[in-house]
Design a protein that fits this description.
The chain has a single domain, classed as TIM Barrel (Alpha-Beta Barrel), CATH 3.20.20. Helix content is 44%, strand content 14%. The protein is built from 17 helices and 11 strands. The strands form 2 sheets. It has an 8-stranded parallel beta barrel with strand order 1-2-3-4-5-6-8-9, surrounded by 6 helices. A two-stranded antiparallel ribbon has the order 10-11. α15 (377-389) packs parallel to α16. It binds ligand GBH.
Length: 495
Protein backbone atom coordinates (compact mmCIF):
# COMPACT_ATOMS: atom_id res chain seq x y z
CA UNK A 1 0.00 0.00 0.00
CA UNK A 2 2.71 2.37 1.03
CA UNK A 3 4.65 1.88 -2.14
CA UNK A 4 1.50 2.44 -4.20
CA UNK A 5 1.04 5.76 -2.48
CA UNK A 6 4.67 6.63 -3.10
CA UNK A 7 4.26 5.66 -6.71
CA UNK A 8 1.20 7.90 -7.06
CA UNK A 9 3.01 10.77 -5.38
CA UNK A 10 5.96 10.32 -7.65
CA UNK A 11 3.73 10.81 -10.65
CA UNK A 12 1.97 13.81 -9.19
CA UNK A 13 5.33 15.41 -8.53
CA UNK A 14 6.64 14.62 -11.99
CA UNK A 15 3.54 16.06 -13.68
CA UNK A 16 3.52 19.18 -11.55
CA UNK A 17 7.22 19.57 -12.18
CA UNK A 18 6.51 19.60 -15.88
CA UNK A 19 4.16 22.56 -15.36
CA UNK A 20 6.58 24.48 -13.19
CA UNK A 21 9.52 23.96 -15.50
CA UNK A 22 7.48 25.15 -18.43
CA UNK A 23 7.98 21.87 -20.25
CA UNK A 24 5.50 21.57 -23.08
CA UNK A 25 3.05 18.70 -23.39
CA UNK A 26 4.59 16.05 -25.64
CA UNK A 27 1.44 14.24 -26.69
CA UNK A 28 0.45 14.61 -30.35
CA UNK A 29 -2.90 16.31 -31.02
CA UNK A 30 -5.43 13.69 -32.17
CA UNK A 31 -6.01 13.29 -35.92
CA UNK A 32 -9.58 14.52 -35.70
CA UNK A 33 -8.59 17.65 -33.74
CA UNK A 34 -9.10 20.68 -36.01
CA UNK A 35 -6.70 23.62 -36.20
CA UNK A 36 -7.66 26.93 -37.75
CA UNK A 37 -7.31 30.68 -37.64
CA UNK A 38 -9.96 33.36 -37.12
CA UNK A 39 -10.91 36.82 -38.39
CA UNK A 40 -14.05 38.97 -38.36
CA UNK A 41 -15.78 40.89 -41.15
CA UNK A 42 -15.40 44.45 -39.89
CA UNK A 43 -11.81 43.86 -38.83
CA UNK A 44 -10.55 42.62 -42.22
CA UNK A 45 -12.94 43.22 -45.12
CA UNK A 46 -12.89 46.96 -45.77
CA UNK A 47 -15.08 47.94 -48.77
CA UNK A 48 -17.35 49.50 -46.20
CA UNK A 49 -19.68 51.13 -48.72
CA UNK A 50 -19.04 49.09 -51.87
CA UNK A 51 -21.39 47.02 -54.01
CA UNK A 52 -24.50 47.94 -52.07
CA UNK A 53 -23.33 47.29 -48.53
CA UNK A 54 -25.29 49.24 -45.91
CA UNK A 55 -23.88 51.13 -42.93
CA UNK A 56 -23.34 49.27 -39.68
CA UNK A 57 -22.68 50.44 -36.12
CA UNK A 58 -18.91 50.19 -36.52
CA UNK A 59 -18.98 52.26 -39.72
CA UNK A 60 -21.05 54.75 -37.78
CA UNK A 61 -18.83 55.05 -34.70
CA UNK A 62 -15.51 55.06 -36.57
CA UNK A 63 -16.76 57.96 -38.69
CA UNK A 64 -17.71 60.06 -35.68
CA UNK A 65 -15.86 63.33 -35.07
CA UNK A 66 -14.17 63.21 -32.66
CA UNK A 67 -13.51 59.52 -33.15
CA UNK A 68 -13.41 57.13 -30.22
CA UNK A 69 -10.72 55.06 -32.00
CA UNK A 70 -6.93 55.35 -31.53
CA UNK A 71 -5.44 57.50 -34.34
CA UNK A 72 -8.95 57.95 -35.78
CA UNK A 73 -8.45 54.59 -37.49
CA UNK A 74 -11.41 53.02 -39.31
CA UNK A 75 -12.23 49.70 -40.96
CA UNK A 76 -13.05 51.46 -44.24
CA UNK A 77 -10.28 49.54 -46.02
CA UNK A 78 -8.84 47.38 -43.21
CA UNK A 79 -7.00 44.41 -44.80
CA UNK A 80 -9.07 44.86 -47.96
CA UNK A 81 -10.09 41.22 -47.78
CA UNK A 82 -13.21 42.05 -49.77
CA UNK A 83 -10.89 42.33 -52.76
CA UNK A 84 -8.04 40.14 -51.60
CA UNK A 85 -9.82 37.02 -50.35
CA UNK A 86 -7.92 34.83 -52.80
CA UNK A 87 -4.66 35.97 -51.24
CA UNK A 88 -6.11 35.23 -47.81
CA UNK A 89 -7.02 31.72 -48.87
CA UNK A 90 -3.54 31.21 -50.32
CA UNK A 91 -2.12 32.14 -46.90
CA UNK A 92 -4.51 29.72 -45.20
CA UNK A 93 -3.49 27.02 -47.61
CA UNK A 94 0.16 27.69 -46.93
CA UNK A 95 -0.41 27.54 -43.16
CA UNK A 96 -2.14 24.20 -43.67
CA UNK A 97 -5.19 24.98 -41.54
CA UNK A 98 -8.12 22.59 -41.33
CA UNK A 99 -10.61 25.44 -41.10
CA UNK A 100 -11.01 29.19 -41.44
CA UNK A 101 -13.25 31.03 -39.00
CA UNK A 102 -14.62 34.25 -40.52
CA UNK A 103 -17.76 36.28 -39.95
CA UNK A 104 -20.42 37.64 -42.25
CA UNK A 105 -21.30 41.30 -42.42
CA UNK A 106 -25.06 41.52 -41.91
CA UNK A 107 -25.29 44.85 -43.75
CA UNK A 108 -23.41 43.45 -46.74
CA UNK A 109 -26.16 40.84 -47.13
CA UNK A 110 -29.14 42.92 -45.96
CA UNK A 111 -28.17 46.59 -46.37
CA UNK A 112 -30.98 47.89 -44.15
CA UNK A 113 -30.88 44.95 -41.76
CA UNK A 114 -34.29 43.72 -42.92
CA UNK A 115 -34.72 40.80 -45.29
CA UNK A 116 -37.01 42.58 -47.72
CA UNK A 117 -33.99 43.28 -49.93
CA UNK A 118 -31.03 40.96 -50.40
CA UNK A 119 -27.81 42.42 -51.76
CA UNK A 120 -26.73 39.83 -54.30
CA UNK A 121 -23.22 41.26 -54.66
CA UNK A 122 -22.62 40.88 -50.94
CA UNK A 123 -23.91 37.35 -50.96
CA UNK A 124 -21.71 36.57 -53.95
CA UNK A 125 -18.62 37.69 -52.04
CA UNK A 126 -19.19 35.05 -49.36
CA UNK A 127 -20.11 32.42 -51.95
CA UNK A 128 -16.82 33.12 -53.69
CA UNK A 129 -14.88 32.95 -50.44
CA UNK A 130 -16.48 29.67 -49.43
CA UNK A 131 -15.88 28.22 -52.90
CA UNK A 132 -12.23 29.25 -52.78
CA UNK A 133 -11.84 27.70 -49.34
CA UNK A 134 -13.46 24.45 -50.43
CA UNK A 135 -11.33 24.33 -53.58
CA UNK A 136 -8.31 24.40 -51.28
CA UNK A 137 -9.62 21.81 -48.86
CA UNK A 138 -10.32 24.29 -46.06
CA UNK A 139 -13.49 23.97 -43.98
CA UNK A 140 -15.39 27.25 -43.46
CA UNK A 141 -16.55 28.04 -39.90
CA UNK A 142 -18.94 30.96 -40.19
CA UNK A 143 -19.80 33.41 -37.43
CA UNK A 144 -23.17 34.99 -38.25
CA UNK A 145 -22.59 37.99 -36.04
CA UNK A 146 -19.31 39.51 -34.91
CA UNK A 147 -20.54 42.89 -33.62
CA UNK A 148 -21.38 44.75 -36.86
CA UNK A 149 -25.10 45.46 -36.45
CA UNK A 150 -26.80 47.24 -39.39
CA UNK A 151 -27.20 50.89 -38.35
CA UNK A 152 -30.95 51.01 -39.20
CA UNK A 153 -31.52 48.30 -36.59
CA UNK A 154 -29.53 50.30 -34.05
CA UNK A 155 -31.65 53.33 -34.94
CA UNK A 156 -34.72 51.48 -33.66
CA UNK A 157 -32.97 50.50 -30.43
CA UNK A 158 -30.59 47.71 -31.39
CA UNK A 159 -30.27 44.62 -29.23
CA UNK A 160 -32.21 45.89 -26.20
CA UNK A 161 -35.34 46.10 -28.42
CA UNK A 162 -36.88 42.66 -28.75
CA UNK A 163 -38.00 43.42 -32.31
CA UNK A 164 -34.47 42.44 -33.23
CA UNK A 165 -34.94 38.76 -32.40
CA UNK A 166 -36.96 38.03 -35.51
CA UNK A 167 -34.81 40.31 -37.66
CA UNK A 168 -31.76 38.30 -36.66
CA UNK A 169 -33.55 35.02 -37.38
CA UNK A 170 -34.58 36.38 -40.81
CA UNK A 171 -30.93 37.15 -41.53
CA UNK A 172 -29.81 33.72 -40.35
CA UNK A 173 -32.42 32.05 -42.57
CA UNK A 174 -30.99 33.81 -45.63
CA UNK A 175 -27.50 32.55 -44.77
CA UNK A 176 -28.57 28.96 -44.11
CA UNK A 177 -30.54 28.93 -47.33
CA UNK A 178 -27.88 30.55 -49.50
CA UNK A 179 -24.67 29.16 -47.98
CA UNK A 180 -25.74 26.10 -46.05
CA UNK A 181 -24.96 23.62 -48.80
CA UNK A 182 -21.29 24.49 -48.47
CA UNK A 183 -21.01 25.69 -44.85
CA UNK A 184 -21.26 22.99 -42.20
CA UNK A 185 -20.02 24.82 -39.11
CA UNK A 186 -21.90 27.85 -37.79
CA UNK A 187 -21.60 30.14 -34.78
CA UNK A 188 -24.61 32.33 -34.04
CA UNK A 189 -22.81 35.03 -32.03
CA UNK A 190 -19.27 36.05 -31.25
CA UNK A 191 -18.82 37.15 -27.65
CA UNK A 192 -22.31 38.47 -26.89
CA UNK A 193 -21.00 39.72 -23.56
CA UNK A 194 -18.95 42.25 -25.51
CA UNK A 195 -21.93 43.24 -27.66
CA UNK A 196 -24.14 43.72 -24.62
CA UNK A 197 -21.99 44.64 -21.63
CA UNK A 198 -19.34 46.63 -23.53
CA UNK A 199 -21.75 47.94 -26.22
CA UNK A 200 -24.84 48.86 -24.20
CA UNK A 201 -23.57 48.86 -20.61
CA UNK A 202 -20.11 50.40 -20.42
CA UNK A 203 -19.81 52.32 -23.73
CA UNK A 204 -16.60 50.51 -24.68
CA UNK A 205 -17.78 49.09 -28.00
CA UNK A 206 -20.27 50.23 -30.66
CA UNK A 207 -22.89 51.63 -30.23
CA UNK A 208 -21.23 53.14 -27.10
CA UNK A 209 -24.30 53.26 -24.90
CA UNK A 210 -23.98 53.73 -21.14
CA UNK A 211 -26.64 51.78 -19.29
CA UNK A 212 -24.89 49.30 -17.01
CA UNK A 213 -27.02 46.68 -15.34
CA UNK A 214 -29.99 47.65 -17.50
CA UNK A 215 -29.61 47.83 -21.30
CA UNK A 216 -26.87 45.18 -21.22
CA UNK A 217 -29.26 42.79 -19.44
CA UNK A 218 -32.05 43.51 -21.93
CA UNK A 219 -29.58 43.07 -24.80
CA UNK A 220 -28.48 39.69 -23.48
CA UNK A 221 -32.05 38.52 -23.02
CA UNK A 222 -32.74 39.20 -26.69
CA UNK A 223 -29.43 37.79 -27.91
CA UNK A 224 -30.17 34.55 -26.05
CA UNK A 225 -33.67 34.28 -27.47
CA UNK A 226 -32.38 35.08 -30.96
CA UNK A 227 -29.70 32.43 -30.53
CA UNK A 228 -32.21 29.80 -29.41
CA UNK A 229 -34.63 30.59 -32.21
CA UNK A 230 -31.83 30.40 -34.77
CA UNK A 231 -30.52 27.10 -33.43
CA UNK A 232 -34.04 25.69 -33.57
CA UNK A 233 -34.58 27.06 -37.08
CA UNK A 234 -31.45 25.26 -38.22
CA UNK A 235 -32.29 22.13 -36.30
CA UNK A 236 -35.84 21.89 -37.61
CA UNK A 237 -35.56 23.22 -41.15
CA UNK A 238 -32.01 22.86 -42.40
CA UNK A 239 -30.10 20.23 -40.49
CA UNK A 240 -31.68 17.24 -42.20
CA UNK A 241 -30.54 18.35 -45.66
CA UNK A 242 -27.44 20.30 -44.80
CA UNK A 243 -26.09 18.10 -42.00
CA UNK A 244 -24.21 20.91 -40.27
CA UNK A 245 -23.34 21.83 -36.73
CA UNK A 246 -24.20 25.05 -34.91
CA UNK A 247 -22.91 26.61 -31.71
CA UNK A 248 -22.12 29.98 -30.14
CA UNK A 249 -18.87 31.62 -29.07
CA UNK A 250 -18.53 33.17 -25.62
CA UNK A 251 -15.68 35.29 -24.30
CA UNK A 252 -14.22 34.54 -20.96
CA UNK A 253 -11.08 34.98 -18.99
CA UNK A 254 -10.16 32.51 -16.30
CA UNK A 255 -11.07 33.80 -12.83
CA UNK A 256 -8.72 32.36 -10.25
CA UNK A 257 -9.42 32.59 -6.49
CA UNK A 258 -6.78 34.86 -4.93
CA UNK A 259 -6.50 32.61 -1.86
CA UNK A 260 -7.57 29.20 -0.59
CA UNK A 261 -10.30 30.71 1.56
CA UNK A 262 -13.81 29.42 0.93
CA UNK A 263 -14.99 32.99 0.44
CA UNK A 264 -12.48 33.65 -2.36
CA UNK A 265 -13.13 30.29 -4.02
CA UNK A 266 -16.85 31.08 -4.03
CA UNK A 267 -16.15 34.58 -5.30
CA UNK A 268 -14.25 33.20 -8.29
CA UNK A 269 -17.09 30.80 -9.06
CA UNK A 270 -19.55 33.70 -8.87
CA UNK A 271 -17.42 35.67 -11.31
CA UNK A 272 -17.39 32.75 -13.76
CA UNK A 273 -21.17 32.57 -13.51
CA UNK A 274 -21.59 36.31 -14.14
CA UNK A 275 -19.31 36.14 -17.18
CA UNK A 276 -19.70 32.77 -18.90
CA UNK A 277 -22.77 31.48 -17.03
CA UNK A 278 -24.79 34.55 -18.05
CA UNK A 279 -24.94 32.97 -21.53
CA UNK A 280 -23.94 29.35 -21.12
CA UNK A 281 -26.33 28.52 -18.28
CA UNK A 282 -29.48 29.49 -20.23
CA UNK A 283 -28.24 27.70 -23.33
CA UNK A 284 -27.25 24.51 -21.50
CA UNK A 285 -29.80 24.46 -18.66
CA UNK A 286 -32.54 26.90 -19.71
CA UNK A 287 -32.11 29.77 -17.26
CA UNK A 288 -29.70 32.35 -15.84
CA UNK A 289 -27.33 31.16 -13.08
CA UNK A 290 -29.07 31.20 -9.70
CA UNK A 291 -26.43 33.51 -8.20
CA UNK A 292 -27.22 36.11 -10.88
CA UNK A 293 -30.94 35.76 -10.30
CA UNK A 294 -30.67 36.14 -6.54
CA UNK A 295 -28.07 38.93 -6.44
CA UNK A 296 -29.78 41.07 -9.05
CA UNK A 297 -33.29 40.52 -7.62
CA UNK A 298 -32.12 41.55 -4.14
CA UNK A 299 -30.21 44.60 -5.35
CA UNK A 300 -33.02 45.68 -7.70
CA UNK A 301 -35.51 45.58 -4.81
CA UNK A 302 -33.13 47.66 -2.68
CA UNK A 303 -32.88 50.14 -5.54
CA UNK A 304 -36.67 50.49 -5.60
CA UNK A 305 -37.41 48.53 -8.77
CA UNK A 306 -40.70 46.61 -8.87
CA UNK A 307 -39.01 43.78 -10.79
CA UNK A 308 -35.49 42.47 -11.06
CA UNK A 309 -33.30 44.27 -13.59
CA UNK A 310 -32.42 40.78 -14.82
CA UNK A 311 -35.25 39.84 -17.21
CA UNK A 312 -36.99 36.51 -16.70
CA UNK A 313 -37.65 33.72 -19.13
CA UNK A 314 -41.13 32.20 -19.23
CA UNK A 315 -41.36 28.48 -18.51
CA UNK A 316 -41.95 27.94 -22.21
CA UNK A 317 -38.86 29.96 -23.10
CA UNK A 318 -36.73 27.98 -20.67
CA UNK A 319 -37.68 24.72 -22.35
CA UNK A 320 -37.14 26.28 -25.76
CA UNK A 321 -33.71 27.64 -24.79
CA UNK A 322 -32.36 24.58 -23.07
CA UNK A 323 -29.96 22.52 -25.14
CA UNK A 324 -29.67 24.88 -28.11
CA UNK A 325 -26.05 24.08 -28.95
CA UNK A 326 -24.10 21.39 -30.70
CA UNK A 327 -20.83 22.62 -29.25
CA UNK A 328 -19.68 25.53 -27.11
CA UNK A 329 -17.15 27.93 -28.61
CA UNK A 330 -14.99 29.93 -26.29
CA UNK A 331 -12.48 32.75 -26.78
CA UNK A 332 -9.79 32.76 -24.13
CA UNK A 333 -6.90 35.19 -23.88
CA UNK A 334 -6.17 35.99 -20.26
CA UNK A 335 -7.01 35.60 -16.55
CA UNK A 336 -7.68 37.58 -13.37
CA UNK A 337 -7.59 36.99 -9.64
CA UNK A 338 -10.78 37.25 -7.61
CA UNK A 339 -11.60 37.94 -4.00
CA UNK A 340 -14.69 38.31 -1.88
CA UNK A 341 -15.55 41.71 -0.41
CA UNK A 342 -17.58 42.80 2.61
CA UNK A 343 -18.40 46.12 1.03
CA UNK A 344 -20.09 45.52 -2.30
CA UNK A 345 -20.31 48.48 -4.66
CA UNK A 346 -23.93 49.75 -4.64
CA UNK A 347 -23.86 51.03 -8.26
CA UNK A 348 -25.82 49.26 -10.98
CA UNK A 349 -23.78 47.11 -13.33
CA UNK A 350 -22.69 43.59 -14.12
CA UNK A 351 -19.46 43.70 -12.11
CA UNK A 352 -21.13 45.49 -9.20
CA UNK A 353 -24.01 43.01 -9.20
CA UNK A 354 -21.54 40.14 -8.85
CA UNK A 355 -20.37 41.63 -5.52
CA UNK A 356 -16.85 40.29 -5.89
CA UNK A 357 -13.58 41.93 -6.91
CA UNK A 358 -11.39 40.90 -9.84
CA UNK A 359 -8.01 42.29 -10.86
CA UNK A 360 -4.85 41.47 -12.76
CA UNK A 361 -1.62 41.69 -10.77
CA UNK A 362 0.92 44.15 -12.18
CA UNK A 363 3.72 41.63 -12.05
CA UNK A 364 2.03 39.14 -14.36
CA UNK A 365 3.61 38.82 -17.80
CA UNK A 366 1.80 41.13 -20.23
CA UNK A 367 1.34 41.27 -23.99
CA UNK A 368 1.22 44.65 -25.76
CA UNK A 369 -2.50 45.13 -24.93
CA UNK A 370 -2.67 46.09 -21.25
CA UNK A 371 -5.60 43.71 -20.57
CA UNK A 372 -3.74 40.74 -22.04
CA UNK A 373 -1.84 39.14 -19.18
CA UNK A 374 -0.18 35.93 -20.26
CA UNK A 375 -1.60 33.17 -18.05
CA UNK A 376 -1.32 29.86 -19.90
CA UNK A 377 -2.51 27.66 -17.03
CA UNK A 378 -5.87 29.44 -17.21
CA UNK A 379 -6.59 27.49 -20.40
CA UNK A 380 -6.63 24.07 -18.74
CA UNK A 381 -8.56 25.39 -15.76
CA UNK A 382 -11.16 27.01 -17.98
CA UNK A 383 -11.96 24.04 -20.20
CA UNK A 384 -11.97 21.69 -17.23
CA UNK A 385 -14.38 24.02 -15.43
CA UNK A 386 -16.60 24.03 -18.53
CA UNK A 387 -16.51 20.25 -18.70
CA UNK A 388 -17.60 19.96 -15.08
CA UNK A 389 -20.11 22.80 -15.14
CA UNK A 390 -21.84 22.07 -18.45
CA UNK A 391 -21.98 18.28 -18.48
CA UNK A 392 -19.00 17.56 -20.69
CA UNK A 393 -19.88 19.55 -23.82
CA UNK A 394 -17.90 19.55 -27.02
CA UNK A 395 -15.69 22.63 -26.70
CA UNK A 396 -13.98 24.60 -29.42
CA UNK A 397 -11.40 27.28 -28.69
CA UNK A 398 -12.56 29.75 -31.32
CA UNK A 399 -9.99 32.44 -30.43
CA UNK A 400 -6.75 32.67 -28.49
CA UNK A 401 -3.95 35.06 -29.30
CA UNK A 402 -1.24 37.54 -28.37
CA UNK A 403 -0.68 41.18 -29.23
CA UNK A 404 2.52 43.08 -29.90
CA UNK A 405 3.27 46.45 -31.45
CA UNK A 406 4.34 44.84 -34.73
CA UNK A 407 7.40 42.80 -35.62
CA UNK A 408 8.11 39.92 -37.97
CA UNK A 409 10.32 38.27 -35.35
CA UNK A 410 7.41 37.66 -33.02
CA UNK A 411 8.91 35.23 -30.52
CA UNK A 412 6.53 36.45 -27.81
CA UNK A 413 3.58 35.25 -29.87
CA UNK A 414 5.15 31.84 -30.47
CA UNK A 415 5.89 31.42 -26.77
CA UNK A 416 2.31 32.39 -25.92
CA UNK A 417 0.81 29.89 -28.36
CA UNK A 418 3.13 27.12 -27.23
CA UNK A 419 2.23 27.49 -23.59
CA UNK A 420 -1.52 27.96 -24.06
CA UNK A 421 -1.75 25.01 -26.45
CA UNK A 422 0.28 22.88 -24.07
CA UNK A 423 -2.13 23.71 -21.26
CA UNK A 424 -5.04 22.84 -23.58
CA UNK A 425 -3.40 19.54 -24.51
CA UNK A 426 -2.94 18.82 -20.79
CA UNK A 427 -6.67 19.30 -20.26
CA UNK A 428 -7.42 16.87 -23.07
CA UNK A 429 -4.92 14.31 -21.80
CA UNK A 430 -5.30 14.46 -18.03
CA UNK A 431 -8.84 15.80 -17.55
CA UNK A 432 -10.37 14.23 -20.66
CA UNK A 433 -11.99 17.43 -21.78
CA UNK A 434 -13.71 17.06 -25.16
CA UNK A 435 -11.93 19.80 -27.12
CA UNK A 436 -12.68 19.50 -30.83
CA UNK A 437 -10.65 22.37 -32.27
CA UNK A 438 -8.60 25.50 -31.85
CA UNK A 439 -8.42 28.76 -33.82
CA UNK A 440 -5.58 31.23 -33.44
CA UNK A 441 -6.53 34.90 -33.44
CA UNK A 442 -5.65 36.05 -35.94
CA UNK A 443 -4.74 35.09 -39.50
CA UNK A 444 -3.36 38.61 -40.00
CA UNK A 445 -3.00 41.99 -38.33
CA UNK A 446 -6.32 43.80 -38.51
CA UNK A 447 -8.56 46.54 -37.11
CA UNK A 448 -8.40 45.98 -33.35
CA UNK A 449 -11.60 47.88 -32.42
CA UNK A 450 -10.86 50.82 -30.08
CA UNK A 451 -7.12 50.25 -30.49
CA UNK A 452 -7.39 50.68 -34.28
CA UNK A 453 -4.25 49.35 -35.96
CA UNK A 454 -2.00 49.99 -32.95
CA UNK A 455 -2.19 46.45 -31.54
CA UNK A 456 -1.24 43.51 -33.77
CA UNK A 457 -2.50 39.96 -33.34
CA UNK A 458 -1.66 38.48 -36.76
CA UNK A 459 0.38 35.49 -37.85
CA UNK A 460 0.80 37.56 -41.01
CA UNK A 461 1.87 41.18 -41.05
CA UNK A 462 -0.26 43.54 -43.14
CA UNK A 463 1.20 46.76 -44.51
CA UNK A 464 -1.55 49.26 -43.71
CA UNK A 465 0.48 52.08 -45.28
CA UNK A 466 0.39 50.47 -48.68
CA UNK A 467 -2.69 50.57 -50.91
CA UNK A 468 -2.02 46.92 -51.73
CA UNK A 469 -2.07 45.87 -48.09
CA UNK A 470 0.78 43.40 -48.69
CA UNK A 471 0.77 40.43 -46.38
CA UNK A 472 4.03 38.99 -45.00
CA UNK A 473 4.42 35.83 -42.96
CA UNK A 474 5.79 36.42 -39.46
CA UNK A 475 7.97 33.93 -37.65
CA UNK A 476 4.83 32.75 -35.82
CA UNK A 477 3.19 31.82 -39.15
CA UNK A 478 6.07 29.45 -39.87
CA UNK A 479 5.83 28.10 -36.35
CA UNK A 480 2.07 27.51 -36.69
CA UNK A 481 2.57 25.85 -40.07
CA UNK A 482 5.03 23.44 -38.50
CA UNK A 483 2.66 22.74 -35.62
CA UNK A 484 -0.14 21.94 -38.06
CA UNK A 485 2.14 19.57 -39.97
CA UNK A 486 3.46 17.73 -36.93
CA UNK A 487 0.46 18.33 -34.62
CA UNK A 488 3.09 18.34 -31.93
CA UNK A 489 4.45 21.09 -29.63
CA UNK A 490 7.88 19.56 -29.00
CA UNK A 491 10.72 18.06 -31.00
CA UNK A 492 9.37 14.48 -30.75
CA UNK A 493 5.81 13.65 -29.73
CA UNK A 494 4.29 10.49 -28.38
CA UNK A 495 1.02 9.37 -29.96
C1 LIG B 1 -11.75 39.15 -29.07
O1 LIG B 1 -12.29 39.60 -27.86
C2 LIG B 1 -12.59 39.58 -30.24
O2 LIG B 1 -13.54 38.59 -30.59
C3 LIG B 1 -11.78 39.94 -31.45
O3 LIG B 1 -12.59 40.59 -32.38
C4 LIG B 1 -10.59 40.79 -31.03
O4 LIG B 1 -9.86 41.25 -32.12
C5 LIG B 1 -9.72 39.94 -30.13
O5 LIG B 1 -10.45 39.60 -29.01
C6 LIG B 1 -8.47 40.64 -29.62
O6 LIG B 1 -8.81 41.68 -28.75
O7 LIG B 1 -9.39 47.27 -22.91
O8 LIG B 1 -9.43 46.65 -20.58
O9 LIG B 1 -11.47 47.36 -21.68
C7 LIG B 1 -11.58 39.21 -26.71
C8 LIG B 1 -12.24 39.73 -25.44
C9 LIG B 1 -12.89 41.70 -24.33
C10 LIG B 1 -10.60 41.35 -24.78
C11 LIG B 1 -12.64 43.18 -24.14
C12 LIG B 1 -10.35 42.82 -24.59
C13 LIG B 1 -11.08 44.83 -23.52
C14 LIG B 1 -10.47 45.02 -22.18
N1 LIG B 1 -11.94 41.14 -25.27
N2 LIG B 1 -11.31 43.40 -23.67
S1 LIG B 1 -10.18 46.71 -21.82
Amino acid sequence: MRSVIHFVFFFIIVFNEAQVNGTLNNKRFPDDFKFGVATASYQVEGAWNEDGKGENVWDQVTHRVPSPIVNNDTGDVACDSYHKYKEDVAMLKDLGVDFYRFSISWSRILPTGFDNKINEAGLQYYKNLVKELRANGIEPLVTLYHWDLPQPLQDIGGWPNEIIIDKYVDYARVLFRELGDEVKYWLTFNEPKQTCNAGYGLAQKAPFITSPGMADYLCTHNVLRAHAKTWRLYDEQFRKDQKGTIGITLDIQWYEPSSNSTADIEAAETKMQFALGWYANPIVYGDYPSIMQSNIARRSAQEGFKESRLPQFTEEEKKYMKGTYDFLGVNLYTASLVRATDEPNPSMGLDEDSEVLAWQPDDWETAFSSWLKVVPWGMRKLVTWMKNTYDNPKIMITENGYSDSGTLEDDGRISYYERYLSSLRDAMEFDEVDVIGYAAWSLMDNFEWLAGYSEKFGLYHVDFNSPNRERTAKKSALWYKNLLETRCLVEECVD
